[in-house]
Design a protein that fits this description.
Helix content is 21%, strand content 42%. The longest helix has 17 residues, at 57-73. It starts with 9 loop residues before the first strand and ends with a strand. It has a five-stranded antiparallel beta sheet, with helices on one face. The chain contains one helix and five strands. The protein has 80 residues and is of the alpha+beta class. It is globular and about 35 Å long. It has a single domain (9-74), classed as Nuclear Transport Factor 2, Chain: A (Roll).
């Protein structure tokens, strides 16, 4: 198992005027890579979360690339 540091984790956020979408790439206690997605309405308590497990950091980052493309197609802008 490779030893990674938190500097290799990744977070991205996209927004529209009324919604947000976040993606986090992180490693769990067992060394597996997770893509954690959260979404919801701005100023609302409604939203959701989903975590997916990947065998490698590269696979997890490839998933983030897919999510980014899909968010742009839906009219979301990358937040600072």
């Amino acid at each position: 198992m490779n030893s990674y540091t938190t500097e290799q984790w990744h977070a991205s956020r996209w927004e529209t005027s009324s919604r947000y979408y976040e993606v986090h790439v992180q490693q769990d206690l067992w060394g597996e890579w997770q893509v954690v997605r959260t979404w919801g309405g701005k100023g609302s308590r409604r939203g959701g979360m989903k975590a997916e497990v990947y065998a490698s950091r590269e696979e997890a980052c490839a998933r983030v690339t897919e999510v980014a493309r899909h968010r742009r197609q839906r009219g979301y802008e990358r937040a600072a």
